[in-house]
Amino acid sequence: MSAVTSMPSTHPQQSGEMTGRTDLGRRLAARREALGPNRDALGRRCCADGTYIAYLEEHAASPAIGTLVRVADALGLTVDDVTATGWSVLAVGELAAVTDPEEIRHLDTTARSRPWAGGPRNHWMRLTPARITGRRVVHDS
What we know:
Largest sheet: 2 strands, antiparallel
Number of helices: 6
Structural class: alpha+beta
Radius of gyration: 21 Å
Strand order of the largest sheet: 1-2
Strand content: 15-25%
Helix content: 25-40%
């Protein structure tokens, strides 16, 4: 029986220079590298395997939205940040101030967004929409 030695692969799908890396993979890798954790550490933060993180970064992967949300969150980003997409939305309707202390406390602790104008804000408004329109925004990388 002869010994098998490990040789570097030159197959395009396994070689680092010829993978199907996408803008998504480049964004994920750049953010992870800027923050410092290796792939295994990031995987632990988002309940994934480090090998899967490498796959996301290096191949034309289409992860499930739940996985993408967990990875983006572990990197301190939103799905829109890592996909370079978003929405421009126009909502028309009636606004009313939220005054119930329990509802305000709930909104303060669970809201995932922050005031776009910056600084502390303690006023919540509720929109009862009459019409919602919008368009998807996709940026070239």
